[in-house]
Amino acid sequence: MKVFAAKGYHYATVEDIAAEAGAAKGSVHAYFESKLDVLLTLLLMFWKTINTMNAEKLAGEQDPLAALKAVFATFRELLLKSGDSLCWGRILQEGLPQLHTLKSRDLRNKQLAIARQQRRLVHTIDSIIRAGQQQGRICTTVRHDVLRQMLGGASQLLIYGLFMKSGTGIGYSAQDIQASFNQLIDAFAL
Amino acid sequence: MKVFAAKGYHYATVEDIAAEAGAAKGSVHAYFESKLDVLLTLLLMFWKTINTMNAEKLAGEQDPLAALKAVFATFRELLLKSGDSLCWGRILQEGLPQLHTLKSRDLRNKQLAIARQQRRLVHTIDSIIRAGQQQGRICTTVRHDVLRQMLGGASQLLIYGLFMKSGTGIGYSAQDIQASFNQLIDAFAL
Amino acid sequence: MKVFAAKGYHYATVEDIAAEAGAAKGSVHAYFESKLDVLLTLLLMFWKTINTMNAEKLAGEQDPLAALKAVFATFRELLLKSGDSLCWGRILQEGLPQLHTLKSRDLRNKQLAIARQQRRLVHTIDSIIRAGQQQGRICTTVRHDVLRQMLGGASQLLIYGLFMKSGTGIGYSAQDIQASFNQLIDAFAL
Amino acid sequence: MKVFAAKGYHYATVEDIAAEAGAAKGSVHAYFESKLDVLLTLLLMFWKTINTMNAEKLAGEQDPLAALKAVFATFRELLLKSGDSLCWGRILQEGLPQLHTLKSRDLRNKQLAIARQQRRLVHTIDSIIRAGQQQGRICTTVRHDVLRQMLGGASQLLIYGLFMKSGTGIGYSAQDIQASFNQLIDAFAL
DNA sequence: TATGAATGAGGATTCATTCAT
DNA sequence: AATGAATGAATCCTCATTCAT
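Predict the joint structure of the above. Result:
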């Protein structure tokens, strides 16, 4: 994760990964089918964790606005967990090869599993928004999918901003994000 | 641009690029120092265009809310220009090598120029927001840089959504974006 | 061919092949899909040549015994052509990977083409033998396929013997083979 | 033996060998210096067995033709022993690395021992033929080494034929070989 | 003695880049 | 100016071998 985050998938070598783990090149292939498998495994882990955490948090939560805030808080927590680097953030952005280019069946399945987890998160958010709209708690002039994308994008770039190098005009902290993002959600509340 | 967008920087070969341009592999290097140079040139072109278009649109525009809407409209126009594919979108996400890894001085300069253009856009947006806040037109409970990141992120993911494959829960069109995004901006107006 | 013959397929590296050809490693892959493709191409070339030469020689040949002698003479000519090394001989013995292990469709087709050419030679020999048996010129107490295998094996090992290192009890020359092999064929004539 | 026969030396892994033996990878190296050592050990075993069996059979055999038949019968027995696969046959064909490439003295010695056993078989056959020629039982128009190679090659390919896949024009059985091969020997009897 | 996790040398392959034509 | 054949650096992956347990 560290290596991919620091160098990007393509500039990271298997040797780099092994070295970071304090192991030898060959050992990486003892645990992963290929370099791509390492990436896919990480991605799958990320999305699964997101969904698991959300499931726990949302159990029993009735208020759609609170639920929405909780979901995006999960996202922030996970992205910020590693502390000093935007590990997940950079990994999530990596362009993956087309599904049909994947040689092994196992890898194809992994990529499908990732897509499934991503869809699950999407579905979670959309359900909350639609429920909120039906309860008259969330404004209905915005499509649920549009709102979901806006919130997701805003959330992402806010976090990325935390790790941007100086000189890019970012002066806020993790705390600022929390408050402002909740204000954003409230802007769509009724 | 098409090739990078379709395959991603690393999966695109110089041969692909040349073929798309109806030229031969060697010719690419007659006009570009390297493959990376092609990408950097494209990126620089993108950001320069963004800033140029903004400069034109904003000349004489007094209303900060209208100005903000115009700036993000520019972004959308450019990203959507190619019509049937998210060319710029994918290109913009490509992980670039670290500045210090770049061998040639020319490439380093180009990357710096890109950063300059990106900062210029950031400055443009921030100026509008701060002016709006001073004029009492934009709410001051949100930092200007936080608002800028939120708007930028929302804008990006909305557009990416347009190109996502079916099954990802995207049902909106380019028109939906326009209205919803302006509503988002208005949510921060006073 | 020289490299495969000298080192064997697996002990020969692509670099060796390139060096022998006075070219660079990468150039091998400009003309061949893979190292295996080099081998398959050579094998296909060999079997095609065998069949072509036979077709020419046998046109108009009525005598089955003369025809048989001609076919095996072709085999000898080709194996001995390179002069100072048993190029084809060693290449022909190389164990090939199973058809289904082959990654590319092109390689699979090449291997099938080789099998086709081999079958064609087998068919050529068998036809001659059967015709000879029907004409009462070749003894019928031996199955045509048995005789074909015996003649083929004898032919092969005779030639291999020519290239065996001293100390293996080989004292004959290429001329001795010709006479003795024809005597072998005559042993089955009526 | 089974593994080498099924996959070929280079496509067989030590893990395969261990698995077939119901042991673990590491155990192979407890009994053999290296993978090549396994192969050489098998080869040496084969040739030693051949010579031992021949020594027993030939003790007291006066008739050179009967002796020749016995020697090649031994060869057939051994090659066909495994029953359903051409184990020895494929192993015998494996291209070995050049003697001087062998790292360990032990391996070099083993390879020399194999060569010694091969020479011993050659000598056995040649002695029989020469004795037969001196006794006027075997025709003298063929050199003893030429006859030995012809018989050996014929014998080999006949047996290989038994294991060839269908579609290669092989229709005979192990019994057909016996009779036909003896007829071949008789063809050189006086 | 048996194991199997860890190792790293070895080699095939890719593809950006060069340069003679 | 355009080409594309040739190059070789870069790197993934395999698997024989080692060795601590």
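Chain A touches chain B through 49 residues (CB under 8 Å).
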